[in-house]
């Protein structure tokens, strides 16, 4: 394939018709972090991954990654020449090999060392995904969550430049999903491999993704940094409940007796703590939290007889109507913006307007950390 003079980027452009469904994708994506892809069933999420990997042929288009074309019009790079790790919904491990055998099979097909070589080695993969206790077991002896951990480890063993994950948690129960998500967070922190993570779960993507692509009926509805996307008032109806903000906060205080912890919006800020549910994060550590707009209410005066733990002084920056004819209010709390979703009647009764000082109320148990 041709090496291009195009600036380094991740570019995907193609048109495709499958079973009378047309897909038209035009994206320029970051080459680091977790790129979340969200959409309803049949929207084209899996098709996008299959096109990127080469499993779904396209007659013409552009796929450009890491200084190289994988597809340039009709000229296409074969699947086996694309340095991609792929994690499917089902682990599909080799039943006749132990877990160690499955991983060694993948390692024999590893790509030559790249920039991740010092980090992405066997010991690191075993540590990040807690493989040691599983190595001498057979696939039939593993739980669903353990099989998916092995599938992720196997995809990493080939030393990929890009990791594709197609709803890897869809077959797991809630507890197993939380377990795997914690492993994925470790991978994100320690490895520099970009990950495209497809899911129909907004909560999974909110926890993991740095960048979000929303696909609707075969085309891109919107895409951008996840906070920019989730604060938009006119998201598809399936995402209206997930409008809100994702904040990088710092653990300020622990209160084990009532299962809460206080976080601050900046490292040096101790004036406006936000109380959230207890996690294992240590004091001073960064904690990513999500505040849904539907969980934020507004009062004109500070309540003293309420069960709500967080009552924060705020300035109204903007008021707009969303796709559900509710009112979406952007609030400034110190130097941080949060959103509140209220009814038109409440907005009119309180006579809210931009520039007004109010109090934002947020239940501690409503904040996802």
TrEMBL record:
SUPFAM superfamilies on file: MOP-like, P-loop containing nucleoside triphosphate hydrolases
InterPro entries recorded: AAA+_ATPase (IPR003593), ABC_transporter-like_ATP-bd (IPR003439), ABC_transporter-like_CS (IPR017871), Mo/tungstate-bd_C_term_dom (IPR008995), ModC_ABC_ATP-bd (IPR011868), Molybdenum_import_ModC (IPR050334), Mop_domain (IPR004606), P-loop_NTPase (IPR027417)
PROSITE patterns assigned: ABC_TRANSPORTER_1, ABC_TRANSPORTER_2, MOP
Top-rank taxon: Bacteria
Pfam families: ABC_tran (PF00005), TOBE (PF03459)
UniProt keyword Cell membrane, yes or no: yes
Keywords per UniProt: ATP-binding, Cell inner membrane, Cell membrane, Membrane, Molybdenum, Nucleotide-binding, Translocase, Transport
Domain Mop: 305-369
Domain ABC transporter residues, every copy: 6-242
GO molecular function, one term: ATP binding
UniProt-recorded name of the protein: Molybdenum ABC transporter ATP-binding protein
Source organism: Marinomonas phaeophyticola
Gene: modC
